[in-house]
Automatic annotation (TrEMBL):
PANTHER family: ALPHA-1,2 MANNOSYLTRANSFERASE KTR1. This is Glycosyltransferase family 15 protein. It holds the Pfam family Glyco_transf_15. Belongs to the glycosyltransferase 15 family. One of its GO terms (molecular function) is alpha-1,2-mannosyltransferase activity.
Length: 435
């Protein structure tokens, strides 16, 4: 075939072959590609140097809070990380403190050294959703000394202040009313009856969380606390401070999830509670939300606020009424001979001592503790949350529904119901646990 037949023009009288012409086009294309790649590479190198300088030099950060950036390893300068640029940009925006005042509060966790990974996960989500901006300190408590590995692991996940405390035998030990020998016998009897039925450390934990944690030196001067635990998840951005929200509205107790307690773990708890009520009427308010935990039959319906999440004005636990209630229970042996949990004790006390307006359901805080989860179903919250409201336990919970329906009860009415239920029990016998 001729050149004309192939559609190739003749240049300046020269008649190139088809092979030479194609080679020229190939060389021109290659030169264009090489030039483009060189320009892109130069641009990336310049941008990478700037990003590396920002990371190492702490550009844009508070000089007093850049200790974690100084420990970044050279591997951080990997090309993929720098090309995206997400890490430095996110850290800059996340570290900007939210406006407004803070209250005298801390985020408190009781944790073992072996739970480092679970607590790192919880703190990471808690930081991302709330505390990266509000910067409340963490108080971590342990019945053993914290290891250096644990401290380093936490330091790597938050730049906020972390205070470490160890529990002594006064905080982590037996009730004065029990003996180790009888406790061992009861643990063996209850081992297969319910979860943690045979666990001594779980009893220590429940007793500590029920009436001793707020007496620890690291919490003694706090006005508020927010409980955090390993392996929990926070699903929704919080653009306000729940502590300030509660303080400004006179709210003393905040919760997210309200399930029912296992009946076998609290077989005599309500009996002792009623005995304490009758002996301490003068410590009780004129009206309270007690009928959230007490059915019309005068017995405990097993509803409780799941205390692995709670935000509390510590004046509640430091009150004469709460101290009296806890001390009474501590002498009743149920922490060790049964398995009284801090959740039902906190919940019964809160509803005995507070009115409904002083207890708040944080429906907008998406939260999961292994076993149950809450996810807001308000469409306006969907842009702030990463969870499925259809899977939320809270909207199926009878106790959660009951909280929305009940109102305050007068103290005299409560006492009347208790007296009537005792007479009914003496005549016919009864059982606790109806909602």
């Amino acid at each position: 075939g001729t050149l004309a037949g192939m559609g190739i023009p003749q240049l300046g009288g020269y008649k190139p072959t088809a092979r030479i012409y194609k080679l020229g086009l190939l060389l021109a294309a290659s030169l264009t590609v090489c030039t483009t790649l060189w320009m892109v590479s130069s641009s990336l190198t310049s941008g990478s140097s700037s990003l590396v300088s920002d990371i190492i030099g702490g550009k844009g950060h508070n000089k007093n809070n850049n200790n974690h950036y100084n420990s970044i390893q050279p591997a951080t300068t990997d090309g993929n990380d720098l090309l995206a640029g997400h890490l430095p940009a996110a850290r800059v925006s996340y570290d900007q403190p939210a406006e407004g005042e803070r209250v005298n509060a801390a985020i408190v966790a009781l944790v073992r050294n072996s739970e480092l990974d679970g607590l790192r996960k919880s703190i990471r989500m808690f930081e991302d959703r709330f505390n990266r901006r509000y910067k409340y300190p963490y108080v971590l408590l342990n019945d053993q000394n914290f290891t250096q590995e644990f401290r380093d692991g936490i330091a790597a996940i938050t730049k906020n202040e972390v205070r470490y405390g160890v529990l002594d035998s006064d905080h982590w030990g037996y009730s004065p009313s029990v003996t180790p020998e009888m406790t061992e016998k009861k643990l063996a009897e209850n081992k297969n009856r319910y979860l943690y039925g045979g666990s001594l450390s779980y009893r220590f934990m429940c007793r500590f969380q029920s009436g001793l944690f707020y007496k620890h030196p690291l919490l003694r001067d706090l006005d508020w606390y927010w409980r955090l635990e390993p392996d929990v998840e926070y699903y929704c951005d919080l653009d306000y401070d729940p502590f300030v929200f509660m303080r400004d509205r006179g709210i003393k107790y905040g919760f997210t999830i309200a399930p029912r307690e296992g009946r076998r773990t609290v077989e005599t708890l309500w009996h002792h509670t009623r005995e304490w009520i009758k002996d301490n009427v003068e410590l009780l308010p004129e009206k309270s939300l007690v009928n959230w935990v007490m059915g019309t039959d005068g017995h405990y319906n097993l509803c409780h606020f799941w205390s692995n999440f709670e935000i509390v004005d510590l004046s509640l636990y430091r009150s004469a009424a709460y101290e009296s209630y806890f001390n009474y229970l501590d002498n009743a042996q149920g922490f060790f001979y049964e398995r009284w949990g801090d959740a039902p004790i906190h919940s019964i006390a809160a509803t005995l001592l507070l009115e409904k307006g002083q207890i708040h359901w944080f429906e907008d805080i998406g939260y999961k503790h292994p076993g149950n989860m809450h996810c807001p179903r308000d469409p306006d919250m969907h842009s702030k949350c990463i969870c499925d409201p259809g899977k939320a336990y809270t909207y199926r919970s009878a106790c959660q529904s009951r909280f929305a329906k009940v109102n305050n009860m007068a103290r005299e009415r409560m006492l009347e119901i208790i007296r009537n239920s005792e007479r009914e029990y003496q005549l016919h016998g009864s059982s606790e646990g109806t909602v």
